[in-house]
Amino acid sequence: MRVLVLVLVPLLLAAQADALDLEKLTRHVDGRVASYVQTLREWVAVESDSSDVSKRPELHHMMNLTADKLRSLGGKVEMVDIGLQELPDGKSIPLPKVVTAQFGEDPSKHTVCIYGHVDVQPAKKEDGWATEPYNLTDINGNLYGRGASDNKAPVLAWIHTVEAYKALDMELPVNVKFLIEGMEETGSNGLEAMIIAQRDTFFLDVDYIIISDCGWLSRRPALTYGTRGNCYFFAEVEGPKQDLHSGVYGGTVIEPMTDLIGILDTLISPSGKILIPGIREAVAPFSDEEWKMYQDIEFDMENYKEKHLNPVPQVDLLAHRWRYPTVSIHGIEGAFSASGSKTVIPAKVTGKFSIRQVPNMDPATVKKQVTEYLHSVFAKRKSPNSLKVTMIIGAKPWLADTQHSLYEAGKEAIKKVFQVEPDLIREGGTIPVARTFQDVTEKSIIMLPIGGFDDGLHSQNEKMSRYNYIEGTKLFIAYLHEVAQIKKVIYFCVIVR
Amino acid sequence: MRVLVLVLVPLLLAAQADALDLEKLTRHVDGRVASYVQTLREWVAVESDSSDVSKRPELHHMMNLTADKLRSLGGKVEMVDIGLQELPDGKSIPLPKVVTAQFGEDPSKHTVCIYGHVDVQPAKKEDGWATEPYNLTDINGNLYGRGASDNKAPVLAWIHTVEAYKALDMELPVNVKFLIEGMEETGSNGLEAMIIAQRDTFFLDVDYIIISDCGWLSRRPALTYGTRGNCYFFAEVEGPKQDLHSGVYGGTVIEPMTDLIGILDTLISPSGKILIPGIREAVAPFSDEEWKMYQDIEFDMENYKEKHLNPVPQVDLLAHRWRYPTVSIHGIEGAFSASGSKTVIPAKVTGKFSIRQVPNMDPATVKKQVTEYLHSVFAKRKSPNSLKVTMIIGAKPWLADTQHSLYEAGKEAIKKVFQVEPDLIREGGTIPVARTFQDVTEKSIIMLPIGGFDDGLHSQNEKMSRYNYIEGTKLFIAYLHEVAQIKKVIYFCVIVR
């Protein structure tokens, strides 16, 4: 008779970061600045705008460049086919492949997976750029170019991190995987299915996921522990069969625009209070601890006021940015939107608005609340027109535990590189992939930003400072060392006869 | 001593329309159908969109085509420079010249002036056109194309009228002048000044002004005796210095869109009642006579209901179309208006709406009422944003005397060509030039439409039926004969020694 006994032996591995090693790596980075900037220039020159299908060849080229770069460092690289993108006209075109890479397979080490993207938002000189958006331009130590901060430089900083070890012939303190996509700016089309498909393969040995697709809040380095989610709605009011001349028909039809304006006006009060029943009730209470924390965060109120006109106390401002929901009405499709005048009664108009999600809101519930509310408001108007409400995006908020060892490692690394305590911050925006990673892979996640607070993401004159790019690379190196020191539990299976 | 005596000799001229002449002219028109359609095709092919300054060369070309056509018939043609158009960016571009022409100068005859325009509303296939808007397409006897009915075919029908006489070597029964402009669709920029400048020259010998820039109400031919005016407003709400990311900034700013939606929602009630104080009070009372007349007019309620959803009694419908004011919200400039989603907080948004004017409203008063009302509503919101209200068009309503001999002539001509009594109708839309002609030249005016009731002006799939185009040309010929029979009083000055 054989007895099979499963013995769990917790093996506590705590690799010591060698201060000498770190110094060498840091010096290496300082010596490679010109080369790093040159690579960023080459990457920014690729107009990898994922929202413009005519730029798709550039985007494919960008994914190839990324794969080549990772391969050149000896990584085990794959380009994962994630299928087709359906276009509004019914045609389909290939999605950009997702690039995965692996450096090291030592089971005694932690494995981190770096997430990033190399597609960009649209940009044209005539939008108001001071420089050519796809020609990286160095002005006073700032590197201006579309995608410089979002997210090409951070992806490169991680690649440079691996390169530094390889160049110095040093062993990576942890196994490093990469997952780089090319559809982030348009909703990460195809990525969730890929993550689900590879949950038990690529992600099986991953311990931690690191996302550097965000920025600091001030000049003080920061760790990000939360993002808001987003529920994006279309409210479509349809009336006559076609657009009508407002002179000929005005007064004899109940105009869809009047109805739409009427229902949009019931979403939010003049002071910004959300009027949809149930929304505010779902929000997690704001604790005294949070209040205290928000108070102490470094934030340039003067700069903010100058730009945005609403002089409110810092705590209120941060709370409304990070941990309260909000309604934004983005615009109306189908109505007259050009300059000049047009005397039209639009036949079908679609109001577009979104509600940022915070704990403990749930998109499915919000969808129900908004749809029911708008239909009830619309019904009271007794309009002959019809209303259709659809939620086209339902992204949950994400929140991490700042006491987790991943965050402790982040604090240590920042102290080593910048000699300051980081701010612990949240993002008002949505990084849906964080929540997807969490829900699908159940791995712990950290957001470790190196972008500046004034990088102008999605806006004109996006930039990455040389300082953040280079010191950010050093931070990533230091971070891998800190992560290596997190205790790792290994399970042995011993068969006893 | 010389005695100067002024003797007024009323010379009653009543030219007899020669039935034989009319028949010949009618046959000529029937033989020219293919050529008339071809000319209309060539005119529709010119994208003479006056609202789009990038199309200005096409518009200039259209004015030249018009002048050439009139010249080819032997008219005394002038292209009147009416100056520059100031653009929102401060630059100026030349306005399209106004084309005037004269056929005949016989002082014993009446002189009519035909007004028309050859500019068009914007149109793109993707707006929902079944055919290419600038490629005239014949489907079941309907000629589809932008500007076909508004106003290129009617202008051509008048030109064909003159051409028929020339081709048959017949004398025109009246002197005919033309005044064709190229800015009608955007408010007849520069025209009023031109009319004022030429009041005592071009207009001096004009007896009557004929406008064919409108349509019938049903399949029954009609004469138009009134139009609504129009006050067109821009309400601009401005907040942050630039567009903001709604994730990063949402909740920390009072969004201009929220304010704009809020104030637009106070203009009109769900049932269509105008809420701006003072507007409804200014409207002339609806008489029993009018009620009776509206009741008897031919109007296809079934077709109307099918298209526009509001089943109301005919009299109410016509009253709301012709003689009551109305508010239409046309759209918002500066907000997101494309398909898909964008998470933007627009920094500056301009709501565009218009209020149709009826007797006894006065645009200057309406401007004051709207501006004060919107500012008072906005003030109650206590918004940090700013509001600017401007009235960019202020066109008065127009009303003619249907007992005037011009209208009697119209009734006769319609009876001759169509064998029916015309309906006497009003236009819900605005033809500001009618009011300008009346106020500046003090001439009598008639609106003599040939457009169909379902031509889709300003809308997708605008068309002119072959029937209306060709029979309309015959109507114009018959009308000139009827006008020639109006008694003309000639004053002689006799010097008696």
UniProtKB/TrEMBL annotation, chains A, B:
Name of the protein: Peptidase M20 dimerisation domain-containing protein
Keyword Isomerase annotated: no
UniProt-listed Pfam families: M20_dimer, Peptidase_M20
Domain Peptidase M20 dimerisation: 226-378
Keyword annotations: Hydrolase, Metal-binding, Protease, Signal
Gene3D superfamilies: 3.30.70.360, Zn peptidases (3.40.630.10)
InterPro entries according to UniProt: ArgE/DapE_CS, Cyt/Met_Dipeptidase, Peptidase_M20, Peptidase_M20_dimer
GO molecular-function terms, A-Z: dipeptidase activity; metal ion binding
Stretch forming the signal peptide: 1-19
Source organism, top-level taxon: Eukaryota
GO BP: proteolysis
